[in-house]
Amino acid sequence: MILLDGKKVSNDIKNEITLEVEKMKERGEKVPHLAAVIVGNDGASLTYVASKVKACERVGFDSTLIRMSNTTSEIELLDKIEELNNNPEIDGFIIQLPLPKQIDTQKVLMAVDPNKDVDGFHPMNFGKMALDMSTFIPATPFGILELLERYGVETNGKHTVVIGRSHIVGRPMSILMGRKGFPGNSTVTLTHSHTKNINQITTQADIIISALGVPDFLKAEMVKDDVVVIDVGISRVPDETSPRGYVLKGDVDFENVSKKASYITPVPGGVGPMTIAMLLKNTLLARERRQ
Ligand code: GUN
Predict the structure, then answer these.
(1) Do 139-272 and 28-113 have the same topology in CATH?
(2) Less Cβ around it within 10 Å: N or C end of the chain?
(3) CATH, domain range 139-272
(4) How many CB atoms lie within 10 A of CB 48?
């Protein structure tokens, strides 16, 4: 079994980006500037956004964190987006999801300038992705592709089973794995809450990408020998023995599934750090395109 070490690979990517930023500085160019908007006080979201800002500092990007209250109206958020779209200093920005109930997420995502949409959530960018056009690929799927590529995991002709059809991970992942090229050329099955007999499908899978958010969902008896397992789940499970009061758990029963797997991502230290590295990569791309 080979561990797909997202912590190590994301560090390599951050080092590569740091070198690019140093070259930009030497040429007297402006460095990339990422802004992140967070609405409300959700603990997990605040942690994610803080890691994104910290990662910007680490590679030499400028960053701006915009915190808005839980009672922010849709109009107020749309005004903020308009301001960021028009601010020439900002190369790319993200609106951290989920948003509070009073705000229509689709409306908000459609207001983001597609050229600054480093999350790749705007329908124009999502459509371009599906049509193999150059675009911003959403950071988590992009990170998974990068891990498969850097470890040379064969995807050609393989049966890839994606669990979960979220707009952020499952749906784009199912499209990307079926695209022409490497990583890609897979035969893809997208499973979700209405899928019947999921065990029958997962036991046929050469590659399983689970983005469900149910701790320990994927058990050893649901996979075949030598399966490749990508665990995107990251749930906070209460644990009194931990200093934080919770532990992070993936969708995969790692202890038992790893015994059968050829490659597997750990949680934490697998897909999570890759997401942040690829957001930085998209921000670098946004800067280069604006140059
Ligand atoms: N919430 C969970 N994942 C993500 C992500 O990749 N980007 C944003 N903006 N919000 C998220």
Answers:
(1) yes
(2) C
(3) 3.40.50.720
(4) 18
Nearest-CA residue for atom 7 of ligand 1: 96
State the pTM of this model: 0.97
3-state secondary structure of 65: strand
200 C-alpha to center of ligand 1: Å?
A: 31
Which residue among the candidates 5, 91, 119, 253 is catalytic per the annotation? 119
Phi, psi of 285 (to 5 degrees): -60, -40
Alpha carbon distance 287, 207 (integer Å): 34
Tens digits of per-residue pLDDT, 184-199? 999 999 999 999 999 9
* Ramachandran sector of residue 213 (left: φ over 0; alpha: ψ -120 to 50; beta: rest): left
Nearest protein Cα to ligand 1, atom 2: 97
Residue of 168, 234, 274 best suited for mutating to test ligand 1, as the one with most atoms within 8 Å of CB? 168
* Domains in the chain: boundaries: 28-113, 139-272
| C-beta 282 within 6 A of ligand 1 | no
Quote the percentage of the chain above a pLDDT of 70.
100
Phi, psi of 106, rounded to the nearest 5 degrees: -60, -40
CATH 3.40.50.2300 fits 28-113, yes or no: no
For residues 222 and 199, is the Cβ–Cβ distance under 8 A? yes
Among 284, 290, 289, which residue's Cα sits nearest to residue 32?
A: 284
Radius of gyration for the chain, computed over Cα atoms and rounded to the nearest angstrom: 19
Q: What does the pLDDT look like over 209-234, one tens digit per residue? A: 999 999 999 999 999 999 999 999 99
**Is the C-beta atom of 168 inside 6 A of ligand 1?**
yes
Residue 96 known to be catalytic:
yes
Does the active-site annotation cover 52? yes
